Amino acid sequence: MTATVSPQRHKPSAWERFFKSGREDSPFKRIVIHAVLIACCIIAVYPVLRVFSVSIRPGDRLLSTSLAIIPEDATFEAYRTVLIEKEFPVWLWNSIAITTSTAIVGVILASSSAYAFSRWRFPGRRPSLVFLLSTQMLPAPMMMVPIYILALKLGLTQTYRGLVIAYSITSVPFSIWILKGYYDTIPHELEEAALIDGVSRLSAFWRIILPLSTPALAIVFLFSFMTAWNDYLLARVMIASERSLWTWVLGVRDFQSQFQTQWGLFSAASILVSIPVMALFLYSSKWLISGLTLGSVKG
Amino acid sequence: MEFLTLDVILNSLGEVGSTVLYIFVGTVILEVVVYFLWRPLEVFSRLIGRMLSPLGNAIRHVISTLLLVGVLVFTVASVSVGVEQPPPPWAPYWPLAVVAFLVGAFVSPTAPKIFHWQMRLPYMLFAPALVGLLVLVIYPLLWELNVSFTNLNPRHFKSPDFVGLQNYIEVFTAPVLKQVTFFPVFLRTILWTVINIAFHVTGGMALALLLNRKLRLKGLYRTLLVFPWAIPQPVACLAWRGEFHFEYGFVNIMLQRLGLPAVQWMTSPTWNFAAMCITNIWLGIPFMMVILLGGLQSIAGEYYEAAEIDGASGWQQFWNVTIPLLQPILTPAIILGTVWTFTNFNVPFFINQNELETSDTLVTALFRSAFQYFNLGDAAAFAFVNFGILLVFAILYIRATGGLKGATE
Questions:
Q1: How far does the CA of residue A54 sit from the closest CA of chain B (Å)?
Q2: Which CATH architecture has domain B173-408?
Q3: Is A282 in Cβ contact with B141 (below 8 Å)?
Q4: Which sequence spans correspond to the domains of chain B?
C-alpha cells in the first residue's frame, strides 16, 4: 500500500522542464544565465551575419545604414559574379589543394616525432622541446625574407610546392606539443603488452597508439589546416606576382583593397570560404575539447 | 583571367600530389638511413670514447663545445645575405667545418649515449621533422642573425657592410619606423597583450563556467559561441574593418542609435587601437572558452561536494577549488595566448592596413620596417629584440608558475 500513498510526482510541463533542468539554480538565476548566454551568442554571431547580409544586398544598396540582416530585395547576384565572372573559383581551389596537402604532411611529420618525445628520454630531448616551444615566439614577418631567398635559390617561388613545404613545417612544432601531451596520457602498459606478444615497437605505434589518438590527430589536422587556410603573409611573399596561383586570402583582400572596395564581392567570397572551414570546425568540435585539454591535464 | 577548368584542377593536383609524395618518400628514406646508420655510429663513438678516456670528461666537454660553437659562428658568417652577393672568402673552407663538426660531436662524452642503438628509434622518428625545421626555421634564423650585423637596406642592397652591433643600438636610440621610436611601440604591444589576455581569460572563464552548469540548449550555445574562432581570421578582420567604417559600419550606426557620437575608428590613433582590441577580443574568447570548459569538465564533482559540506560559498569554491585545479590547463593556455597575441599579425595588419604608424605593434612595425621601408638590417636586429623580449617573458612566467614542469619531464 505504501507505494500508492507516496505523494503524487508532479509531472513537469515542457516549459517548466526548460527552466528547471538545473540541479541547484533558482528559476530567476536560470533566466539570467540564459539571457547572458543569448546576448553573448548574438555578439559572437552578429558580425558574421552582417557579412552574409551585405553579400545578398542588391548592388546599388551595398552601403546602407540599415541594421536588418535580410534586406528587402535580397539577391544572390554577388555570388553569381564571384563564382562565374571572377577568378575566385581558381583561388578557392588553390587554397583547398595547398591546405589539404599541408595538413596531411603536417600530421605525418608531427605524429611520428611526437611519439619519439613521448616515449623515449633521448639526449637532446628537453632542449628540443624548449626549442619547439620557442619557435612559437618568432614573429612571423622575421622569417619571410630568408624563406623567400631560400625559395628563390631552390626555384620554389610562384609554385604550390614551396608553400606546401613551408606551411607544413611551420605548423609542426605546435602539433608535436599537442600530440606529445596526448600520447603521454596513453598508458605505456598497452604497448608493453603488445611488445611481449612479439609486435615491433613501430607497429605497436601504428596499431595501438595512433588509433587511440584520433581526437588529437583530428585537432592537429584542423590546426595545420587553419594555419595554412588563414595565412596571408607567406602567400603574399611567395606567390603574389602570379595571379592564377593566388590563395583565397590574397583574392579576398584584393576585392577589399582596390580603390573602391567591392563590398558585395568581398562578402560573398568571404561567406563561400567560411562555409567549408566552419563545417570542418563544427564537425570536429566534439574532439576539440578532449584533444586540446587531455594532454595538458595530465601534463 | 583564368577559369577553373579541368586542366587547371589536374595541373595543381599533380603538383600538390607529387609534393606530398616526395616528402613522404624522402621521410621514409631518411628514416631508413638513420635506422641503419645508428649501429655503426655506436661502435665508432664507443671506440673514440675508449681512445679519449684518459683525457677526462671535463676536457672533452670543453673541446667539443669550442669546436661546435666555432662551427656555428662559421655557418652564420657563411650564410650569404643577398641573392647576388658573392659568398665570403672563407666559404670554400666548409669541408673543414664539417670535419670540425664531426670531431666536436664524437669527442663529446655524451656521444655514446646519443648513438646508443636503443635510441635509434626516437632519432629516426624525429629526423624528418628536424631536417624540415633546420631548413625552414634554423637557416632563416641564422640568415637573420647574420643580416642583423649588416647595413642591408635600399642604399646598400648589393654590397652590405658589416656594422657590428650598431643595428641593435639603433633599435633603442633611433626611430624604428619613420616617426615612431621603439619604446612607444613596445609599450603599446604590452598594453595590447595585457588588455587582450585579460578579456580572453575572464570572458572565456565566465562563459565556460556558465556552460559547465546543467543547462538546456548547452550544445547550441557552445556551437554559436565558437563562431568567431571558426570563421577564417582574415575574413573576420576584414569584415570588422568594414564594420568600423565611419558611416556604414554597424558599430557607429549602433552608437548613434543609442544617442552616442560616432567614432573615428580609422583615423584617430586611440580609437584605431581600440578597434584592434575589440576585434581581437571577439576573436580570442572562444579558444579560451573551449580550453577552460575542457578543464572544468575534468574536475570531479566530489571536490565541490566536499567544499559545500565545509560551508564554502560559490565564490570561495571558485578561488579555492576551481582555480587551483585548473592551473595545469590555465598556465599553458595563458602562455600560448600571450605569445600568440603578442605576435599576432593578422589583426593589427588587417584592421589598420599599414596606415597609422601609431597603431603598430612590434610585429606589424617589423613587417613595415622590412617590407615597406626595406631596412632589412635594422628589421633583423629589431626582430631579435622582439624574440628576446618574448622569450624572457615566457621563461619568467614558466619559472614563476612551474607551469610546464610536468610537460617536459
A1: 10
A2: Orthogonal Bundle (1.10)
A3: no
A4: 6-147, 173-408
